[in-house]
């Protein structure tokens, strides 16, 4: 039985190229930074975590919520193949119990903050808004997209961002948790306007303040799907 079953829906993905040296201290043992066309990426993602079941059980008042995370990409060579995964620098949710379970059992880096979202269908477009409150300021991910889904092209940057099927967590300098994430290949909605406003320094600390001055390499909306998260193993 999977540890967790849920849906990840309406994933607004804002992607930046960064100097890989900034991320070295976050890289779990046994993995290395995964590059796409020689570029190192971090992604800032807002989405809906819905229909959550832990070990088959639905937890009252904790089955549907927003999440915003900052992540980067790694790979691990095992049994003759490369396993591609993500490392989460920070994950924000509105439920204390979610943070407790993730931090306690998966050694993740969740924090609990006030959050809200809004989905809007216009005549010729759709709008997706995710917000979270820090120091009385509402940070905002807001993207407007075309209405019609399109494929995520093979060998594209969007494929690189979405097709990572493992999570890696740095326990300490010598130990790492690995867990598998499963989902079908996603479709996307083309973003035609990005009005996101994020105080990176306040939310993520001084070492990530520079992101505010960067232009995203890409912004897109992955439609999402049902997912599973399998039980962790220590490597």
Automatic annotation (TrEMBL):
This is DUF2071 domain-containing protein. Pfam families: DUF2071. It comes from the Bacteria.
């Amino acid at each position: 039985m999977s540890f967790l079953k849920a849906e990840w829906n309406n994933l607004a993905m804002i992607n930046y190229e960064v100097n890989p040296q900034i991320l070295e201290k976050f890289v779990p043992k046994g993995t290395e930074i995964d590059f796409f066309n020689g570029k190192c990426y971090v992604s800032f993602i807002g989405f809906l975590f819905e229909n959550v079941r832990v070990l088959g059980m639905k937890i009252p008042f904790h089955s549907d919520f927003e999440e915003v995370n900052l992540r980067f990409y790694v790979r691990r060579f095992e049994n003759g193949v490369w396993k591609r995964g993500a490392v989460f620098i920070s994950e924000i949710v509105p439920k204390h119990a979610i943070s407790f379970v993730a931090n306690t059992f998966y050694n993740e880096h969740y924090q609990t903050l006030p959050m809200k979202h809004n989905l809007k269908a216009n005549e010729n477009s759709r709008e997706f808004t995710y917000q979270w409150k820090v120091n009385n300021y509402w940070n905002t991910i807001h993207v407007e997209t075309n209405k019609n889904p399109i494929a995520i092209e093979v060998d594209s940057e969007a494929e690189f961002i979405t097709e990572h099927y493992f999570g890696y967590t740095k326990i300490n300098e010598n130990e790492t948790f690995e867990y598998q994430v499963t989902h079908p290949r996603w479709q996307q909605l083309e973003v035609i306007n990005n009005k996101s406003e994020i105080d990176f320094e306040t939310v993520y600390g001084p070492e990530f303040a520079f992101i505010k001055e960067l232009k995203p390499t890409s912004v897109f909306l992955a439609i999402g799907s049902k997912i599973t998260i399998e039980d962790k193993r220590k490597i």
